[in-house]
Amino acid sequence: MEFDRARLKREVKLSMKGSGCMMVALLFSVVVSAGTWLLNTVLGGLLTGGAGSVSDTVMRYVQRGYELEDAINIALLELFQRGPGVLAGIAVGGVVLSIIIALWQGAMDVGYEGWCLSMVRHENPPVSKIFCAMPQILQVLLTRFLTGLFIALWSLLVVLAYALLLFAAIMLASLADSVALAIPFLLAAIAVLVVGVIWVSTRYLLVDYVLLDKGLYGMDAIREGKRLMKDNIGRGFVLQLSFFGWYLLMTAMVYIGIILALIPIIGAYASGSSGGLIASSGFALLVIVAATVGTAILSLWLKPYVTGSIARFYDWARASADGPQGGPVFHGGSDGSWGGPADYTWTSGPSSGSGAGSGPQNGGFPPPPPPKAPPKPKDDPWN
User: Fold this and answer.
1) Residue 266 in domain
2) What pLDDT band is residue 228 in, cutting at 50, 70 and 90?
3) Among 215, 221, 212, 228, which residue's Cα sits nearest to residue 319?
């Protein structure tokens, strides 16, 4: 089954229409942020031995008239006076708290991926679908832990290979007293690092979707995810890379907003006009608010677009690997797109009509030629 990235992304954008995906993305962000804050508040003091009170101590001394730098030094001195055992407990507690927060956010990420998988399959998922990972939270956490472990181990090997090639380049340059001889090793080291990072990050791209869709977890989900990504790592990487322009646009919006806000303030400050400084400050505030709102709206649209595209890529990879019984797909529509939802069976094209194979029709005349294939849809401009 041929992979068509442009059509895949086009169909994801069609499935986003009327799905409320931006409101779901907003709710997801609020829930994750609120849960993270709650864990920090409730467990922070218990696991870190009251280290969170350092900020309170700093504020207390600031309110007494101390300079901020002096208040921080006093708070840290009081913390160190508790002894090495307390400091070690605080460090361990901080690591445990970080792991708990990462697990919470990871489980919610899997739930949101499940919602997007249902969205691209036109299942009209409810908002509560973002919590679909919670009933199988132990399987999700086990799978996430093992996936992260394998990614870390493979990344370590990649970094080790990069370090060895870089060391060889440095030694060759020093022994031969020629930088030119070291350039091939340096280029090889960079290539190993880039290709290795791409391979590691993309190889496990579909593990979460295997867990959600097939009910596999742990090593079974990892093996199945690697099977689906066999010969598809390049496609998966290019699919993710095709969103680079959108992230670049978001970054540009932030920096352009900051520059537009600072220019009138700098001009008013240089002219020494207090009225101009007040006016330029008000204008700067409006520009920053507009840039923040615009970036937030774009991110709320981009999140389901990116996640939905990877979910659709999972459906394609499963069909490509397993054949017609692989899973859900969408029949070709009249406009040549993948169209509306089918009966969740893979198909390579529109099914034949009831008269297929019944011989000449239309009074014995040959059947009319099939309609021309519609032009291939263009990809979005951010590739």
Assistant:
1) no
2) very high
3) 228
- Is residue 135 in some structural domain? no
Neighbour count for residue 186 (Cβ, 10 Å)? 17
Tokens of 26: 């907003």
> What CA–CA distance (Å, rounded) separates 365 from 90?
86
Asked if the structure places residue 263 within a domain, the reply is no
CA-CA distances (angstroms) from residue 300 to 77, 91, 356? Answer: 43, 35, 47
Domain that holds residue 161: 145-241
Model pTM score: 0.72
Per-residue CA distances from 371 to 36, 335, 360 (Å): 55, 11, 18
Closest CA to 209 of 231, 186, 227, 195: 227
301-323 pLDDT, tens digit each: 999 999 999 999 999 999 888 87
Distance (Å, whole) CA 159 – CA 64: 50
**How many domains does the chain fold into?**
1
Distance of CA 322 to the CA centre of its chain: 26
pLDDT tens digits, one per residue of 125-148: 999 999 988 888 899 999 999 998
Q: What angle do CA 312, 318, 322 make, to 5 degrees?
A: 155
User: CA angle, corner 358, sides to 355 and 364, nearest 5?
Assistant: 100
- The C-alpha atoms of residue 118 and residue 106 are separated, in whole angstroms, by 19
Residue 205 lies in a domain: yes
E strand residue ranges, 274-325: none
- How far is Cα of residue 104 from the mean position of the Cα atoms in its chain? 16
